[in-house]
Amino acid sequence: MKDFNYLDERFDPQLKYFEAKSAFNQRRYLLMRRLMLIASWLTPVAIFVQFLVVKDWRDYWAIVPMILSTIAVGSYQWEEVHNYGSQWSKFRLVAENLKHQRAYFEFKTGPYNNLSPEQSQKMFVEIVEKLLEGTDINYFTLMVDPHRSPTDNK
């Protein structure tokens, strides 16, 4: 195990990457949802208040509900375009799967039970690399427009 550099050179950087991407997408997802929720709640209030505002200021106040509703719809659409929720879920899932494999490997359980150290190392690398390889497929499932043909590179 002392000469097994895979953990430091490949596994740990990949795990950090997936955890960082998960955290980034989680923050963006929650920000967009909060913006949408707050703006959606305030829009009808602003419309109601518009009738209470003195007549001289009513035309200026009319912009407030428009801005709030634009924020509500815009934040929803922005999240839909960038898939922050889906990305958060995807990156979190991969990070957790990597952690599970490391725990199985270190404690010689699951698929690593009753294997020699060399066999365990080989199996660990194979399983981790398949997990990482699978993320490319998930990425294209999430991010590539399903209505666009692969030959539409124009």
Question: Concise description?
Answer:
With 154 residues, this protein is mainly α.
Could you walk me through the main structural features you see in this protein, from its secondary elements to its overall organization?
By secondary structure, the protein is mainly α. The chain has one domain (6-143). It has five helices and no strands. The chain has helices at 6-52, 55-61, 63-82, 84-106, 117-143. The longest helix is centred in the first third of the chain and has 47 residues, at 6-52. It is rod-shaped and about 85 Å long. Residues 144-151 have low confidence and may be disordered.
**How far is the first residue's CA from the last residue's CA?**
50 Å
Number of helices: 5
What is the chain-wise order of helices and strands?
Answer: HHHHH
How many beta strands in the DSSP annotation? 0
Largest sheet: none
Radius of gyration: 24 Å
Number of domains: 1
What amount of the residues lies in strands? Answer: under 5%
Structural class: mainly alpha
**Poorly predicted sequence stretches spanning 5 or more consecutive residues:** 144-151
Helix content: over 70%
Helix/strand layout:
Layout: H1 6-52, H2 55-61, H3 63-82, H4 84-106, H5 117-143
Helix pairs in contact: 1-3, 1-4, 4-5
Task: Provide keyphrases for this structure.
0% strand, 154 residues, mainly alpha, single chain, rod-shaped
